[in-house]
Amino acid sequence: MKLKALVGVLAVAGLAMPGIASATNGYFSHGYGIKAKGMGGAATATASDAMGGANNPASMVFVGDRLDVGIDWFSPKRAASRTGAASAGGSLDMNEASSSNDFLIPEFGYNMMLGEKMSLGITVYGNGGMNTDYQNGSAIPGTGCGGSANVLCGSGSTGVNLEQMIVAPTFAYKVNASNSIGVSPLFVYQRFSAKGLQAFGPLSSDSTKLTNNGHDSSTGWGVRLGWQGKVTDAVTLGATYSPKIDMSKFKRYAGLFAEQGDFDIPMNWNLGVAFKATPAITVALDYQHIDYSGVKAIADSGITAGYAGTTSPLALGGSNGLGFGWSNVNAVKLGVEYKYNDALTLRAGINHGDNPIKSGETTFNILAPGVVTDHYTLGATYGVTKDSEITVSYMHAQEKSVSGPTSPYFGASVSTGTETIKMYQNSLGVAYGMKF
């Protein structure tokens, strides 16, 4: 009976394509699962829901038979400005905000026990963060772009949209009463679109595959490995590792992303500890590393010296093509959970991550201003019955800005100017959990 239920769950999950727009720890979410989001994302050493495929596969053998379904309203506010820049045609100054500000992000988890020592489940979750939409014409008061144009001197509105859906079937095994291991094969489906980037045609290895080609998709397979161990009655440790996922190429955007449209998922790992300070209070601490430097489309500089034309390896789409110049991100996540009574559990958390964008990389990152570093969260779970519960969470990411010089490759004969990109975020999520 459980196996038939899992087959049905897999069929539904395979049809679910979340629309994603989250830029928190780079473009990874600050947390996965509404409970983890209320804890600042700290979940590597805890076991409270069926989101283990995203957090720690080893945790699933401790959560029992359960179903978790949730949705998060996410509102990132992005803006960009440029001052003191001009070309032969006039001023390039602008001050514009992205008009795409509201997104719904679903999540799904299911787990079933196979006896006392094994579990089988599935987690469906998403990443994103490169979603912007700057309108045409309103941002350029001068004629430096040759008349009415968008913030990057192209025609029409400009922006990008990246969505990633990860389906994670999960197997966990309890080695003994205190330790478990788990594995989640990861199937990744991603899609991408870009528009309004015509001004970068002279920098592209193939300007016909640079912009305004609609949505393109790619797929790939990866894995997440996990361990969770109870050291004492009060202390639990956890660790996970996911190597870089080799994705198929975005063929329609082979003239934009380095390596002819390649956009892989970076290697990432987590370490966590959960400490039960009292029977009612648990403190969780996670450290996460995301290796953006291992993906050329993300890590290659947008101002690389030595560019020498569209056939250069440094051209957009080239083997070492111009990119977003992102650095690795290390994030520390601290959460506190307080079991107020048998029905109500309260949570709070802080998440601090590195800003991946350096001051010299602002021009391309107008499209993807993932600069926020500090996230503050609250959450709560209320038991509706002994076998069902409602969980809510709230997150605010404090506004962060980065300023730097206009890229020397932006436009033609551009005088030195200063660009500023900035963002802040709010999110509000709700989930339903049911035990079997």
Short description:
GO terms for molecular function: long-chain fatty acid transporting porin activity. With 436 residues, the chain is mainly beta.
Q: Determine Rg (CA atoms, Å).
A: 23 Å
State the low-pLDDT regions, or none.
3-21, 138-143
Mean pLDDT: 89
Beta-strand content bin: 35-45%
Order of helices and strands: HHEEEEEEEEEEHEEHEEHEEE
**Major beta sheet, strand line-up:** 1-5-6-7-8-9-10-11-12-13-14-15-16-17
Indicate the CATH architecture: Beta Barrel
Shape: elongated
Q: Give me the CATH superfamily.
A: Outer membrane protein transport protein (OMPP1/FadL/TodX)
Provide the structure class.
mainly beta
Q: First CA to last CA: what distance?
A: 12 Å
What's the β-strand tally? 17
CATH topology heading: Porin
InterPro entries: OMPP1/FadL/TodX
Keywords: Cell outer membrane, Membrane, Signal, Transmembrane, Transmembrane beta strand
Pfam family, one: Toluene_X
Signal peptide: 1-23
Describe this entry's structure for a reader.
The structure is a single chain. The protein has helices at 2-15, 34-38, 258-261, 296-299, 362-365; strands at 66-83, 86-87, 90-91, 94-97, 103-113, 118-131, 159-174, 179-195, 216-230, 235-242, 268-276, 281-290, 329-339, 344-353, 374-385, 388-405, 418-435. A 14-stranded antiparallel beta barrel has the order 1-5-6-7-8-9-10-11-12-13-14-15-16-17. Strands 2-3 form a two-stranded antiparallel sheet. It has 5 helices and 17 strands. Strand 11 (268-276) and strand 12 (281-290) form a beta hairpin. The longest helix is centred in the first third of the chain and has 14 residues, at 2-15. The protein has 436 residues and is mainly β. Belongs to the OmpP1/FadL family. This is Long-chain fatty acid transport protein. InterPro entries: OMPP1/FadL/TodX.
